[in-house]
Amino acid sequence: MKKWPQLLSVFTLGLFLGLAIMALYQMQTLDRLYGIQSQLTTELLDKEIKLERLNENIKKQSLIIVKDLDILVNYNGNPLVKDEIKKNIQFYLSDLVGRDLDSIDGVMIHKILQQRIIGIEDKHFKLLVDYIIISQKISVSVSAKLLE
What we know:
- This protein is an alpha+beta fold.
- It has one domain.
- Helix content is 55%, strand content 22%.
- Strands 1-4-3-2 form a 4-stranded mixed β-sheet.
- It is elongated and about 90 Å long.
- 12% of the residues are buried.
C-alpha cells in the first residue's frame, strides 16, 4: 500500500517537469514568431507609407522620386534587437520616400545616422555608417556596436 503514494508523487513530478520543458521549448518558438510578426508589421507599415507618398507625388508631377528604402544592419547579437535598430533607422529616414531624387542630400543622411546612439531594451548602441547609395532605392548599411 505504501507504493501508491510514492508512484503518484513520481508521476506528478514527471508531469510537472514535462510541462516545464515543454513551456521552455514553446517560449523559443513564440520568441521567433514574435520577431517575424514584428518584422512583417514594420514592412507592412513602411509599404503603406511608401504607397501613399508615391501616389501623392505621381499626382503632383512626373519627376524621378525615391521609391524605397533598403536598410542593412550589421549586428551579430539578438535578431530582435537587430530588427529594432532597423525600425529606428526606418523611422529617421522614412520621410525620404516619395521625395524628388534631386532634393535628397547624402551628407544629411550620413549626419543623421553616423555616431548616433540609440537605446533598445535598456542597452545603448552606437551606429556607424558603412555606405549610402542614393537612387530610386536608397540603400543604407550601418554597423551597430553595443556600448558598455
